[in-house]
Amino acid sequence: MSGINLKGKVYDIQGFSIQDGPGIRTTVFLKGCPLSCPWCHSPESQAFGSQLSWMSMRCIGIEQCGKCLNVCEKGAITPGEVTKKSGTDEDIQYVHINRKICDNCGSCTEVCYPGGLSMCGEEYTVNDLVDRVSKDTPFYEQSGGGVTISGGEALSQPQFVFEVLKSLKEIEIHTALDTTGFTDGKNIDAVLPYTDLFLYDLKHMDSVQHKQVVGVANEKILENAKRIAKAGGKIQVRIPVIPHFNDSQDNIRQTGEFCKSLGEAVVLVQLLPYHNLGITKYQRIFDDVKVLEAEPPSDEKIQKLKEILEDFGLTVTIH
Ligand code: SF4
Ligand code: SF4
Questions:
Q1: Do 90 and 136 share a structural domain?
Q2: Which of 37, 81, 116, 263 is the right S-S partner for 58, CB 3.0 to 4.6 Å?
Q3: Which prosthetic group or cofactor does it need (predicted)?
Q4: Is 71 exposed, middle or buried (0-12, 13-18, 19+ CB in 10 A)?
Q5: Which atom of ligand 2 is nearest to the CA of 119?
Q6: What CATH number should be reported for the domain holding residue 314?
Q7: 94 lies in which domain range?
Q8: How far is CA 73 from the centre of its chain?
C-alpha cells in the first residue's frame, strides 16, 4: 500500500488550538495508548478500536424517541432509570447501555438523530487527513502555527504518523508531535526529520512510582528524550502536576535537572496543573467513573514548582 493510502484511527480533529505548540494549530488526536494514567482527560483516546459514545446532553429520552432500543441485536440498550434532565428539574428516562454486551458495532448511532449516540474513532488515510488539516493553512501562515499530532500515544500508530508528518513537511507545514515518549527508539528516529517540535510528557522521575501509577516504567521515555536532544530535535516538556503523585518539590527538582541535561533541546517547560474536567467524558464511554478525583493543586504550590524549574535556567509556563 502506498504511504498516502495508509490508514490510521483518529478520534478528534480540533482547529484553532493554541495550547499544542506555537501559533494557531490544528490538533489531530489518534486512538490508542499503552499508558493508563488515572488522571487522563481523554478516556476516548485509550482504546485502539472505535467505541460507542453516549451523551446525556443530547439524548432526548425514551418517551420522545427511544429509537435505539429497537436496533441493538445484542440487547445492549435497555430503558434506564428515570432521572432529572441535565441542568433542569424535569424528569427524563434515558437509555442504559450494557458495555459488557456492546461490541461497538455502531448500528444504534444510525437511528439517533439528536446525536446522543456516536462512534468515537474514525479511519483516515494519510492523504485524507493531510487534505483536511491543510485547509487551515491560512491560519498557520498568519500565526506561525501548524499541525500537532496527538493521542492517545500517537506513536502507537508509527507508520501512519511518519507518513502524515512527512507529507505535512512536503507542503511546508510546521509539525509538532505530542508524545508520552513511550515508544521504540526507531519510531523516534523515523519521525525526527519531519517533526519541528516534540511536546514531551515527563510524569515522574522515579521509574518504580511511574510504573505503579501509569502502568509502564520510565526508562524508555527518558532514553527517547535524550535521543531527540542528541539528534538536534526541539522539545517542549509537559509536566502534568498530579496531587500525591509527582507534585513533590523533590520530583520537580529531579525533572528540572533532567531537562537541563538535555541542553538547548528544551525550548519550554509547561506545568499542567491537574483538573477534574474529564469526568463527564468518562461517563460517555464507561459505566463508572475511573478517572482520578482529587483537589487541584493550589496556585502557591504551582508557583513554587515553577520557581524550582526556573532555577535550572528553564523557561517555564503554567497552563
Ligand atoms: S436514539 Fe439517541 S436520542 Fe433517541 S433515546 Fe436513543 S440515545 Fe436517546
Ligand atoms: S454499538 Fe452496536 S452493540 Fe453497541 S449498543 Fe449500539 S447497536 Fe448495540
A1: no
A2: 116
A3: [4Fe-4S] cluster
A4: middle
A5: 1
A6: 3.20.20.70
A7: 53-118
A8: 32
